[in-house]
Amino acid sequence: LGFAAELIRPGGFGDVGSEIEKQQTANERIWRSRAIVGMGLWLPLEILHWTASFLHWHGPWMSWLMFFGSMIILVFAGSEFYKSAWDAAIRRTTNMDTLISMGATTAFVYSSIVFFLQLDQPAYFAEAAGLLGIVSLGHWFEARASSRAGSAVRELLRLQPETAEVLRDDGTSESVPSADVKKDWKIAIRPGGRVPVDGVVIEGGSAVDESIVTGESIPIEKSPGDSVVAGSMNTTGRLIVRTSVDGRNTTISRIADLVQKAQTSRAPIQRLADQISGIFVPGVILIAIATLFGWWLAGDFAKGVIATVTVLIISCPCALGLATPMAVMVGTGEASRRGILIKNAATLERIGRAEHVIFDKTGTLTTGR
After folding, report:
1. Which of 91, 163, 255, 357 is least surrounded by CB atoms within 10 angstroms?
2. Quick check: 344 and 262 in contact, CB under 8 A?
């Protein structure tokens, strides 16, 4: 299908999270600029077009303005749609962008022919531009939602301190990036600091707030032999901890990995939507071609072109391809901010039908006794 693959080294989730953040930020920036150009040009042109028509001062300059304005939107805002449609075409498949690209292009080319040949037919430059501008706006909102949902993973990863105070055998200590900490190293955790890596207390005593993992709001007293988890807050005393994992496989990293996998997993209803769209898009294209030839044979080719564009545009089922993955991504992201970890999209879908929730007995739900 044209997707690229790359090897991700084991335990490097922090790096992956950073890369995902960069991609989401870049994607949002790209669609924002396309939406601003598309809507920023189309709305004034549309308002001017209707105002000029209403006041009967619709001169030849208006057609030139509509032509160049819509062409700029097609080139700038439409480039991603055309690229996506072309990538699908060379792999002998179709997608939602296929319909959008064909609809906008057909409307623009037909309008250009009407304009340059001075035919007695209406032009549809504004409709071609408006389609790309509005759908680009929708993609921008989608990218913003993705970025906000992805921030749940980033916030989890930020709970793990960037550095750890590692104790050497000669009694000295040095600050080391948490990701570089190895198993069985000794680290010191001062009062008010967060635990950088999972481990077992070997010296000292303190109350540790583990609410990030357990939901328990009351700090738990820790003494030699007790375990501590990355991301928890040391409150009162100094602890010496022997690490039980390396810095890239901490509890926080695994939780963030779980959230990330849940956000990218597919719900059963989404698989159904993908199967439908695989048949739907070619079906719509065939209906559009049949519409064009039907009107052509009936002797009204111009009306046939408009009817064909109409079929292509109103058949774009953007919600079919966007709604389910967006619901999964935002739902799991918002849940993780509230301390609720959802394993995958199928689980999220089942939760929607749940009528009872059964909790095991914990201090979170009782008075702690």
Report:
1. 357
2. yes
Q: Give the number of other CB atoms < 10 A from CB of residue 184.
A: 10
Q: How far apart are CA 307 and CA 299, in angstroms?
A: 14
CA distance 234 to 216: 14
The mean pLDDT of the chain is 81
CB 213, CB 229: distance < 8 Å: yes
Active site residue 15: no
Bigger pLDDT: 272 vs 35: 35
What DSSP designation does 19 have?
H
Task: Tell me how far CA of residue 155 lies from CA of 20, 69, 94, 148, 337, in angstroms.
Answer: 13, 42, 37, 11, 8
CA distance 58 to 75: 26
For residue 212, the tally of other CB atoms under 10 A from its CB is 20
CA dihedral sign of residues 314, 315, 319, 322: negative
SS3 173: strand
CA-CA distance, 298 to 304, in Å (whole number)?
9
247's CB contacts (< 8 A; 6+ apart) are 164, 177, 178, 179, 180, 181, 182, 196, 197
Answer for the pair 239, 204: CB distance below 8 angstroms, yes or no.
yes
| CA atoms within 13 Å, Cβ hemisphere of 70 | 26
| φ and ψ at residue 129, rounded to 5 degrees | -70, -40
List the one residue out of 24, 18, 22 whose CA is nearest residue 145. Answer: 24
Residue 191 has what pLDDT? 92
Q: Tokens 């005393």 correspond to what residue?
A: 237
**Looking at residue 216, what is its pLDDT?**
75
According to the model, what pLDDT value does residue 152 have? 66
Catalytic residue among 120, 169, 170, 360: 360
In the block, residue with structure tokens 């030139």:
64
Q: List pLDDT tens digits, range 83-101.
A: 988 988 888 887 778 888 8
